[in-house]
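Sequence only, no structure available. Ideas?
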Amino acid sequence: MAFSFKVLGASWDVSWHFKWLRDDLAPPHLLNSVGTAIALALTIIHIYTGYGVDKLAQRLITWGTGVFLVAVPLDLINHRINGLDITSWSPSHLMLYVGTLFMVCGVIRGWFVRAVPGRTRTLVLGGLFVFLIENVWFPAQHQEYGVYSIAAWDRGQPEAEPILIKFAADQIGLPVDDRAVALHFALPVPDQLYPLYAVMAGIMVAVYARAMIGRMFSATAVVGVYIVFRALIWPLLAVADFPRSAIPVFLIAGALAVDLAFLIRMPVVRALAGSAAATLLVDQALRLQHSAFMAPPLVPPTTMLVGGAGLAVLWLAAEWSFSRHTLRAQEREALVSATATP
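Reply:
I predicted one. Tokens follow.
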């Protein structure tokens, strides 16, 4: 329930900030606050009882909640000092995502370690990984909303309210009718960040999902459910006259490459071959989406070479962690079954 409130609030939050001037008590923030309150209460219960968690899971949840609670006042101070600070990639915003990341990872760890093998374990684990990919991908939504914002500006029909546009223009000292205002507001980070983040962060979530869920096409299913959710809220935002965004459909191609790579038995070969295949498919799928529908600006192929190298390093480290912490589904299920049997 806590994560559900968080996802609903977050899904509305970016669209809200592309339309209205920031407000601490905006409805998306209130939805997030409900989720935070539930999560805080559950964190205290986990610490007190130890129910449903081992020590590592408990520490992840506790530290995640702590980082999140510290980030909230820092973010408020940041906005008071720096004004609008629209980018999702600011330090205080990143602390919010990191705190939530630790919380979700802690819950995943607790369920992965303690749940009895079976269909329920698999489905719940898959659902938790959907929450994880949503949180990890959240900052990248800025560019996805940004391309629609730029297109609306170029049509002469800005989606943002005049008060928000004027505030952004005053903050950078440009006239309201200058296109640089729209660019500063909608795409304030380098174009290379989006595809690099997709390859190294988005695909790594798929790698861990496939290893820990342990079912064929589980990575594709996790990413696919997230994409379906984004596609379902798209018309709801449009009907309510809120800004829309590009949907990262191309991530499904990378997740499919991850699932196919896990057919390879040798970990090192799997990591290297999977990284190359996922990078290639993400790059081509992103270019196809850009030409057919809407997507953030494209970058030269050399950028994706850097992303592929980074993914290979991260995937190799993940393969080590799977063995070091018994994070492969089959090994964990065998361990749980053995310890649960008299």
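The two ends are 34 Å apart (CA to CA).
Hope that gets you unstuck.
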